[in-house]
Amino acid sequence: MATALPLQATPAHNLSQSSQAETAFRNKETSKFIPRGDTVVSLNYFQPPEDGSIPFNFVEEPPKGQPPRNFGDFDIKVPIKDIRGHEDEYTLDRDAFKVALNVPSSAERDFSSDESIKKNYYPEVEKLILDNVPSSNRVFLFDHTIRRSSPNARRAPVARVHIDQTLKSATQRVHQHLPGEAERLLKGRYRIINIWRPLNGPVQSNPLGFASSSTLKDDDLIPIEHRYPDRTGETAGIRYNEGQKWHYLSGMTNNERLFLECFDSYAYNQGTEVQGGRVPHTAFSDPRTPEDAIGRDSIEVRALVFGP
Ligand code: OGA
Ligand code: FE
Question: Which family does it belong to (predicted)?
């Protein structure tokens, strides 16, 4: 098994000698917890229902007599590449993921109140998208999820290869959130992009893995009915294929953002450069992570992105 690469000490010219020593100590302490570099990890993949029926899962309690879901899963080892140092080699149109580095610190400090997150963090995410997603001119943020690794957390990291939406549910989302304008907006380009970041970075454990959209075959994308109490959405499970190329960004910090594009309507238009526009992703546990590493906390904000 590969060992973690040492983290370069960060320059700290403007710090006093004692705080330089402290910073160096902290970095050294943290760096021993951060696995870096290419490795092999086990990912949990979708297994279709044995009887050939349409896969479903219930978001909340299933109705009496029904299972929470009718499909299985299995673990398989895959190579995974650390894109640290190569962040700018990946694009939304080819890979359906993208990294932003050196993002200014958020005005939101606690990430504990939804109202406060919407007030402070949402406008920053909207601007980040408009500045970084080519040809975007309008953003509607419709949801966010805080994940914490503590045992009693409401939502934890998801160790299951998936994509949040499909053509059907992305289109539904436009109708649901922008009913008056949906018909018009659906004639243009519409995308769903999650903006993901750690809350307690640099990430020591349970990082997020993502496979390039350009390596995912349409046939390996399996729609799953996502049954809410009052409506049915659609997510996608991924059939394993060794052609799928996995990546992660080691030691992701609070000033870095991952763009996870779950859907791009241009993938359905002839003559565009878009290679699928959908990124399989999952949390994974890295066998190099020490036992006493800190659990990852994160937030993802989900955005409808329009234009031109
Ligand atoms: C997402 C997602 C899982 C995780 O951002 O869409 O699936 O563990 N995240 O953060
Ligand atoms: Fe997801």
Answer: Belongs to the asaB hydroxylase/desaturase family.
